[in-house]
Design a protein that fits this description.
This protein has three helices and 13 strands. It is mostly beta strands.
């Protein structure tokens, strides 16, 4: 057993830049979270999506409390979550850009309840907000699933991966 001395002391000053770099070693998938609100598409990209529960069916996403998009999205009766494929790097960047241009040229569909889903995502979920939990400088949003659609597993593309502050494909950088 190796004993860490000094450099791994508890109660150290945890520099945000250093934390971001350390967190970046853990790759995560990327999703689009979107809805049609007042007749226009509203959405964002998130790399903190994870499955939570099968009964009830829940997923989560963690969003910055300073997000200007989340207050509008949380008003929607239903939200769409689309798991992005490795060819979606440009779409993901677009979803992080100017609000009025986020869906320009992006093929999408809207459910009767207003959930907006990208047409060529790996998996798509129709959700409602189940609970929000304050978590430091983020809000953890638990979403209850009401419908799911996914591509045929045999034909599935690789997911878009966020790793070390950039987009990657499984096994190669983009």
């Amino acid at each position: 057993m190796t004993v860490l001395a000094g450099a791994f002391a508890t109660n150290q000053d945890l520099d945000p830049a250093r934390l971001r770099q350390a967190f970046g070693f853990f790759p995560s998938g990327v999703v689009a979270l979107a809805a049609e609100i007042d007749g226009r598409p509203i959405g964002l990209a998130a790399s903190s999506f994870t499955s939570v529960s099968l009964d009830p069916p829940l997923v989560s996403v963690s969003l910055d409390v300073g997000s200007k998009t989340w207050p509008a999205l949380r008003r929607a009766s239903h939200l769409g979550v689309t798991i992005l494929a490795d060819h979606h790097a440009d779409v993901c960047r677009q979803l992080a850009g100017p609000v009025e241009q986020r869906f320009d040229g992006v093929a999408h569909s809207v459910t009767d309840e207003g959930a907006l889903l990208l047409d060529d995502g790996l998996a798509r979920f129709d959700c409602t907000v189940y609970r929000e939990v304050e978590a430091g400088d983020h809000v953890l949003v638990l979403l209850e699933l009401h419908a799911v659609d996914h591509v045929d597993q045999a034909a599935a593309l690789a997911p878009l991966v966020f790793h070390r502050s950039g987009f990657s494909r499984l096994g190669r950088e983009t």
